[in-house]
Amino acid sequence: MTAYRTVAPLRSVLAVLGALICTGAPAMAAGGEAAHFERHEWSFAGVGGQYDRNQLRRGFQVYKEVCASCHALERVKFRNLVQKGGPEFDEEAVKALAAEWPNKITDGPNDEGAMFEREPKLSDKIKGPYKNEQEARSIQNGAYPPDLSLITRARSVHNEASWYIHVPMMLRDVLTGYAEGGSDYLYALLTGYKEAPQGFNLAEGMNYNAYFPGNQIAMAQPIPEGGAVEYQENAGAKSSLEQNAKDVTAFLAWAADPSLNERKQLGWTVMLYLIITTLLLYFAKKRIWSRVKH
Ligand code: HEC
After folding, report:
1. 88: left (phi > 0), else alpha (psi -120 to 50), else beta?
2. Residues 6 or more apart from 4 whose CB is under 8 A from it?
3. Cα of 37 from ligand 1 centre, angstroms
4. Which ligand 1 atom sits nearest the alpha carbon of residue 155?
5. Which residues surround ligand 1 with Cβ inside 6 Å?
6. Of the residues 152, 202, 239, 258, which has the maximum number of CB atoms within 10 A of its CB?
7. How far apart are the first and last CA of the chain?
8. Average pLDDT over residues 205-211
């Protein structure tokens, strides 16, 4: 009962804070026109979250069939796709995938001193279609499709709210362990293509996006309404724009933080260890001091 009494006031304080945060409905934007970023329930969010292996597999399929034609993923090696805590594909399947990857590896020099191209192996990085940034820009109308390996860590949602809403929100984020700003941004970006509003000055070759800073982006909508890929029967979800966007975001979140599963599991083990140690120390102390009158 004492525990309840101490928790009750804390609960009401949290409830008031929560109400303030929710009704405040702050406009959050990465810049440009203020846009509201929705927070999604990612399986890997919070203190105990873990990646959903089927989702990572679907997400890789979206990356491979859609994004890989413009974006590299060079901090991920083919062998990482086999490792625990990731999509955990079969090693033989990934070997075959690497050998068929359209972007070859430049290796060498050979015995004649010349560089040569070869098929990627398990130990090679997942290469994009361009040799360098200049080639990418010259083909992409001056724009540069960034490497996506760390994109969910390199982007976030920016809070434009006033300080009295901002501060409790920060507190909420700390308490709930919110670290999915990059994923929320990426999902919003992929699903945020719209008709430009009247009077908006859209430059030639650019596309209107409600969430991109400045609202015009050189990347055309990569995933169309209805979805871009066909999932297999047993993939665990049906293909649609929203589902493809969610899955590729989860996959890229894994690419940027591949040891998350292991780390969070270890965290719980450490907590359990500390709790047991605390109990042992408490009872040991009671026993030792029970012989002393006080
Ligand atoms: C036809 C080429 C093409 C395809 C396919 C493509 N992109 Fe892009 N992407 C680009 C270009 C070009 C840019 C640079 C846009 C700019 O700077 O205006 C870009 C930029 C981005 C950015 C950076 C946005 C920012 O905040 O700076 C992200 C994230 C991104 N793409 C994700 C994806 C994902 C995920 C897919 C697959 C579902 C994808 N792209 C498919 C060409 C492409």
Report:
1. left
2. none
3. 19
4. 26
5. 62, 66-67, 69-71, 140, 143-146, 148, 151, 155, 186, 189-190, 217-219, 222-223, 248
6. 152
7. 27
8. 96
| Residue closest by Cα to atom 36 of ligand 1 | 67
Query: Rounded to whole angstroms, how far apart are CA atoms 168 and 17?
Result: 7
Where b means 16+ CB within 10 Å and e means fewer, 253-285 reads bbbbbbebbeebeeeeeeeeeeeeeeeeeeeee
> What ligand 1 atom has the least distance to the C-alpha of 68?
5
Whether 99 shows a pLDDT value over 70: the answer reads yes
pLDDT score, position 9: 52
Cβ 190 vs Cβ 249: under 8 Å: yes
Closest residue by Cα to atom 38, ligand 1, is 67
Report d(CA 203, CA 47) in Å as an integer.
43
Q: Tell me: the pLDDT tens digits for 251-287? A: 999 999 999 999 999 999 999 999 999 999 999 999 9
